[in-house]
Amino acid sequence: MSVEESLSNQWEPSEGAFAPPCLPARYARFGTFQIDAERQELFQNGLRVRMQAKVYQALLTLLSQAGNIVTREEVGKRLWPERLPLSLDANVNTAMNKLRQALGDSPEQPLYVETIPRRGYCFIAPVEFSDVADLPGAARGEDAVRTAPENARAKNGNQPLRYTLPVGLRVATLLLTGMVVGALLVLAWYSFYGRNHKAMNSTKDTSRPAESRLFRR
């Protein structure tokens, strides 16, 4: 069985298997995300995040022990309670990578899931548990879905929005700016020309008496 097939299997515990991680309340909130444990869904800003069943269970496993280190073996037993896969490390790594993609997280600069070398993983973001829904989408059960690539782009959505002027208004603004600059240039030229013209006239006036004396001789 491939890693993808192993992750895609639905989590259906059998008798004697590990029980799903239990959260202190129905809703768990961290960052812009909210989990509805009763409906087993993850929301971001009211939009449902699509993720595989095993990836969701990996998130619950970390959230149930937020702030503590969860070993790879414990993650593996939670995701595959009946029989651990032969390539446990590869399966756990793939599950965590997909979880980071869904959260828009990064292993180099983690906001939510931190890898503890040679030990396991730790959920490092503050988590708030409540029995009251905070995000409207989770409360109403909206069908809007956000995929993992959209979550990666949404990670940068905290930056202030930039307002872009319509094309027509931008063209009119450019034309008006050009007219103002042109008018200022014309005024500057007339001012420069007027000063030079007065200077030339004053020079001619001062030279006339000398010329008249020459002609009289």
The parts where pLDDT drops under 50 for at least 5 residues are 9-18, 139-144, 157-163
Q: Kindly identify the CATH topology of the largest domain.
A: Arc Repressor Mutant, subunit A
Please state the overall shape, judged from the principal axes of the Cα atoms. Answer: rod-shaped
Order of helices and strands: HEEEEHEHHEEEHEHH
Rg on CA atoms, Å: 36 Å
Beta-strand residue fraction: 5-15%
CATH superfamily of the largest domain: Winged helix-like DNA-binding domain superfamily/Winged helix DNA-binding domain
CATH domain class of the largest domain = Mainly Alpha
**How many domains comprise the coordinates?**
2
Major sheet description: 6 strands, mixed
Strand segment count: 9
Provide the residue-averaged pLDDT. 77
Helix content, binned percent:
40-55%
State the secondary-structure class: alpha+beta
SSE blueprint:
Elements (H helix, E strand, L loop, with lengths): L2 H6 L18 E4 L2 E4 L4 E4 L2 E3 L3 H11 L5 E3 H8 L8 H16 L9 E4 L3 E4 L4 E3 L5 H5 L4 E2 L1 H7 L12 H50 L1
Parallel strand pairs: 4-9
Antiparallel strand pairs: 1-2, 1-8, 2-3, 3-4, 5-7, 6-7
Helix pairs in contact: 2-4, 3-4, 4-6
